[in-house]
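Quick one - inputs below.
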Amino acid sequence: AQSVTQLDSQVPVFEEAPVELRCNYSSSVSVYLFWYVQYPNQGLQLLLKYLSGSTLVKGINGFEAEFNKSQTSFHLRKPSVHISDTAEYFCAVSEYGGATNKLIFGTGTLLAVQP
Amino acid sequence: ETGVTQSPTHLIKTRGQQVTLRCSSQSGHNTVSWYQQALGQGPQFIFQYYREEENGRGNFPPRFSGLQFPNYSSELNVNALELDDSALYLCASSNGQGWEETQYFGPGTRLLVL
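Output:
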């Protein structure tokens, strides 16, 4: 069955340090990959998505992610974080050929940026 | 361009009651999906509507039902509320059903069942 795993429930990091949020997926078919961010008491905002082509995808707010098919991973990175990046980050997939374009989400990673 | 809006923002109900949540999709979008996000969890797909027809459903019981209107706005109805229905309910719209399509989320309705 398809699933998305975010191994780190919380990642504490100091301001201006680099960060990587990990995401692994399992699926028997090709997938499209997404990262969303959720600020406190808000809905989800798309950071970036991978559809095809270059495996390095750049998104908003200085984030980027790299698709690795052999490792079925789509890790999110930022070279230097800010206090304002504190939020919950969700990795999600949609399956090519599925009946709908429903998103399957991981359980999220709380990025806690400290001064 | 107006984004996805949802109403109400917060709601408190008691067990056994019924609730209706509303969603207005982003301008030009004809597909609406509903998700339930329990505390500390990722969103779970409830169902999707495309041009007023339900075209996919997640692992939710029939007491979760929905509608989509000609203007593509949508409602989520939950009957016989249970305590476990307490969650953030998110509506997302997209321009079609393509698997590559971005889903744009509203701010959600937070439902508390007592």
